[in-house]
């Protein structure tokens, strides 16, 4: 099956659109080529992101990172805003906001669905409305900077929307854990060795294991394997690439090594998984 990228409403590197009901997406799993933020006052139905299902309710912020697979249920409906942006566009935002993106868009399910207080959501709505008006204006020389500044404010407000998230973000172990997730999301195709990530973070293998257990409930080896398996599933489902090629892209020395790894994690061989035709 060929990859379908849904870039509804996406123009160049950034877009914002108002949502007033039905999502209008094709009801097939889609891999997003951009980062997505949904800010909504009312939600109905559910969304599945990399096989994690989230219910859509009132006063929520939904985050989908570039590269993830998402599928809205047929009855899904949102009243709010959809903001999409590329990593290249985010580079235009002030550097001081970069940590917020690391916390929120790290391919981990921790913060994908955030419940917001009504007042916080209304504040985000107000900022989104101003951003939308700015996006609709005629182009001018510093328009990109203005859009990036609004996006920075939204990201900071989103990172602080939940007090527990703010507490974890300020905790030193949480910062290490967040940095680890960011490193894995950037490098899992290069290395699967826990010791390599621990070395980069200047801590021991044992310290990293303890932090991951405390902050996320899983050992680092399982987190790394999870990201590799999710990417393998995406490639098997959305592309016609031979299993041998997928194994090479994911830095396995042979098809047999990749097949053994995949079956250990999923109880299925890569080819069997592909033949099932289900993400």
From TrEMBL:
Domain of life according to the entry: Bacteria
Domain HTH araC/xylS-type: 178-276
Short name of one Pfam family: HTH_18
Database matches in SMART domains: HTH_ARAC (SM00342)
InterPro entries: Homeodomain-like_sf, HTH_AraC
GO molecular function: DNA-binding transcription factor activity; sequence-specific DNA binding
Protein name: AraC-type DNA-binding protein
Lineage, opening ranks: Bacteria, Pseudomonadati, Bacteroidota, Flavobacteriia, Flavobacteriales
């Amino acid at each position: 099956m060929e990859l379908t990228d849904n870039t509804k409403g996406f123009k160049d590197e950034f877009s914002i659109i108002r949502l007033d009901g039905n999502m209008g997406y094709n009801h097939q799993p889609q891999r997003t080529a951009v980062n997505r933020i949904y800010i909504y006052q009312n939600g109905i139905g559910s969304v599945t992101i990399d096989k994690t299902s989230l219910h859509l309710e009132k006063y929520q912020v939904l985050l989908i990172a570039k590269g993830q697979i998402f599928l809205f249920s047929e009855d899904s409906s949102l009243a709010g805003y959809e903001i999409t942006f590329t990593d290249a566009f985010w580079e235009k935002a002030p550097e001081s906001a970069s940590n917020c993106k690391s916390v929120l868009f790290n391919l981990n399910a921790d913060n994908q669905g955030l419940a917001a207080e009504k007042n916080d959501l209304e504040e985000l709505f107000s900022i989104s409305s101003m951003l939308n008006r700015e996006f609709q204006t005629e182009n001018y020389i510093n328009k990109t900077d203005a859009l990036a500044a609004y996006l920075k404010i939204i990201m900071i407000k989103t990172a602080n929307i939940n007090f527990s998230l703010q507490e974890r973000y300020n905790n030193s172990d949480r910062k290490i854990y967040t940095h680890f997730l960011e490193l894995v999301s950037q490098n899992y195709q290069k290395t699967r060795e826990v010791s390599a990530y621990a070395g980069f973070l200047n801590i021991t293998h044992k310290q990293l294991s303890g932090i991951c257990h405390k902050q996320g409930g899983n050992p680092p080896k399982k987190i790394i394997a999870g990201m590799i398996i999710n990417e393998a599933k995406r490639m098997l489902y959305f592309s016609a690439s031979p299993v041998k090629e997928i194994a090479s892209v994911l830095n396995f020395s042979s098809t047999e090594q990749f097949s053994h790894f995949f079956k250990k994690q999923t109880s299925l061989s890569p080819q069997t998984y592909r033949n099932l035709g289900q993400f």
